[in-house]
Amino acid sequence: MTQPKTRRRPLIAAETTSRSISFDSFYRSEYRNIVAMGRALLKDGAAAEDLAQESFLAAHRHWDRISRYDAPQAWVRRVMINRANSMRRRLGAEWRALAKVGADRETQMPDLSPATTEVWDQVGDLPRRQRQAVVLHYVGQLTMNEIGEAMGCSSGAVKSHLHRARETLGRRLSDWNEE
Amino acid sequence: MSDLETRLSQASEETREAARQAVPPPIPSARPARPGWLILAAAFTAVVLLFAVPALLGGQDTPLGENPQPTQSPPTTIGAATTITMIDDTPQQCSAEGTPEPALSSDLPADVDTTARAIIGAASDCDFDVLAGIAFTDGSPDLITSFGGGGIDNLARWEEEGYGEMDTLVRLFGTSHALIESEDGPAIYVWPAAFAYDRWEDIPPEYLSELMDLGVYGEGELDEIAKFGSYAGWRIGIDENGEWLFFVAGD
């Protein structure tokens, strides 16, 4: 085989550490955070639990590598928001139909108050990136950098999404208050 | 704090509090978790059967004797007021479905081999969520895809538009790989090996044959790439630590 010559090119360095945590402790410590964000994104407790389980299952499959990251939870958040988006798109029709007939699936979580439900309904109507930024910021209580990591964008872009989301939500929620 | 901030904070706190009641189920094993959509589909079917069958038997709301539509069921009336329509939401076929699983070289480092296998598995299912996870790098920019970034979103969009990028991604792993070393960072394993040559003329015949047999390029496309002076077609890069760096085409 002819050996290709060595080439120099800009590289993207991967920051990994030798630190490794057990999946078990990671899963137990992060599960509820992911469920909370999933619930705000999907507005459905049982679906949020499914979403969290699928996200952690994906993490489990790749744990050898992910466990070396400084923040493995960032990986799970990334998968979770992508999966949430896919689930919303794929299952929107079924959810609407189920909601109409009141066919809620079982969840261990209590119902949310009407006021909170209204907030997530309005957030759910935002464009995808704005919706994700709001949920990661308020429910996830993440920094701009952490949100950018999860969304795959800069912290500046996150601020922009949040700003536009607040403008829209401020208008819509005040309308709802007046009704 | 503004009224909006208060409302968002209160809603978030209530949602976090509710989530604290969620009990993590047993740690996932090798058995795949039940996909949420299957549960929803089952629940939906049960609801439809519960309400629609009595209606059909009673002959009140749904006309009998009509042929069912293959892709969209007729509206089903439930009770007196609610009508729902079952929508055929079958996912688009994945371009990599049926693409033979490539045999990876046995001389790949374990980290690279693991990532390559993970990519092949997710690409074969067109599972862009998992691909996004694999592409995620801790403290580094995202996976590079063509045409100005966009990462996995690009791939998902192109696949949806019918360009068959997942098929390409899987097939590329069936070519020989090359190692591109660097003095200022980890080495990169690339597929196809032809990409590691600065000049098209230097690419060994066996690697050119691989490109021709790849099943990705149509007639004349490789000639167009050759005019560029080196191989600038689809290629994959994974660094020696197992980080997926790029899946790109073009300069």
Give the H and E element order of chain A. Answer: HHHHHHHH
Structural class of the helices, strands and pairings of chain A? mainly alpha
User: How many DSSP H or I helices of chain B?
Assistant: 8
How confident is the prediction overall: mean pLDDT of chain A? 79
Mean pLDDT of chain B: 75
Task: Write out the strand line-up for the largest beta sheet of chain B, numbering strands in chain order.
Answer: 3-7-6-5-4
Largest interface: A-B, 86 and 88 residues
User: Globular, elongated, flat, extended or rod-shaped: what is the shape of chain B?
Assistant: elongated
What is the topology?
The complex is a heterodimer of chains A (179) and B (251).
Chain A: H1 23-42, H2 45-61, H3 63-66, H4 72-101, H5 114-124, H6 128-139, H7 144-151, H8 155-178
Helix pairs in contact in A: 1-2, 1-4, 1-6, 2-4, 4-7, 5-8, 6-8, 7-8
Chain B: H1 3-19, H2 36-58, E1 76-78, E2 82-84, H3 110-124, H4 128-135, E3 144-145, H5 151-160, H6 165-172, E4 178-180, E5 188-191, H7 205-213, H8 221-227, E6 235-239, E7 244-248
Parallel strand pairs in B: 3-7
Antiparallel strand pairs in B: 1-2, 4-5, 5-6, 6-7
Helix pairs in contact in B: 3-4, 3-6, 4-5
Structure, explained:
The complex is a heterodimer of chains A (179) and B (251). Chain A has 179 residues and is an all-alpha fold. Chain A folds into two domains: 22-109, no CATH class; 112-179, Arc Repressor Mutant, subunit A, CATH 1.10.10. Chain A has eight helices and no strands. Chain A has helices at residues 23-42, 45-61, 63-66, 72-101, 114-124, 128-139, 144-151, 155-178. In chain A, helix 1 packs across helix 4, helix 1 (23-42) crosses helix 6 and helix 7 packs across helix 8 (155-178). The longest helix of chain A is centred in the middle third of the chain and has 30 residues, at 72-101. Chain A is globular and about 50 Å long. Residues 1-19 of chain A have low confidence and may be disordered. By secondary structure, chain B is α+β, with helices and mostly antiparallel strands. Chain B has two domains: 37-90, no CATH class; 110-248, no CATH class. Chain B is built from eight helices and seven strands. In chain B, the strands form two sheets. A five-stranded mixed sheet of chain B has the order 3-7-6-5-4, with helices on one face. In chain B, strands 1-2 form a two-stranded antiparallel ribbon. The longest helix of chain B has 23 residues, at 36-58. At the A-B interface, helix 1, helix 2, helix 4, helix 5 and helix 6 of A face helix 1, helix 2, helix 3, helix 4 and helix 5 of B.
